[in-house]
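Risk register update: the risk of archive-format incompatibility is retired. Evidence:
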Amino acid sequence: MARWWIAGVLFLLATGVQDAATAPERVLLEKATLRTDDGDTLDIVSAAGVESVRILGIDTPEVLHLDHNIPFAQPFGDVAHGFFRGALALARKVELLRSGQKDPFGRTLGYVFLDDVNYSVLVLQAGLAAESITHYGDNGLAKEAAECLAAAKTQGPLAFEEPHLYRKRMRLVADDLKAKGLYPASGKR
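Archived output:
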């Protein structure tokens, strides 16, 4: 009996079948439970705690994040954050398509839909995000990733430094400021 069970598990692993806990799921969100962190991160606040969501397909300019070694806001970071807050405020329906995966920081990875429109596509079309699929892959959501890649192809040149390069540079700045005792203890966005 044990050999059949092991053979079944090996078959499921070999065929790539995911269990229900990791399968993508699309859920309706209550707007009153949502809090934006920046242009590509959303927190869902409930009695059970806070679920932090890293929105797939995009990388928006950085806002001031002292706890993440970003001592200075990136140009257009506050604009991208404001775009997200405004888009959420105008939406009648907000949904999250969870990929079933988490990032290295424990955040849920997924796409946000506002009135059935992929938010990642909207912010790419607005020129306030770089696409992140060519670097991180489609996270098992090929249709949504393809939509983002198509939107990114219509963009002109970005008006800001690629956010991943900005983060890398700011880590060096933060380390230097900390070594000199000049890193701010707190800061407002």
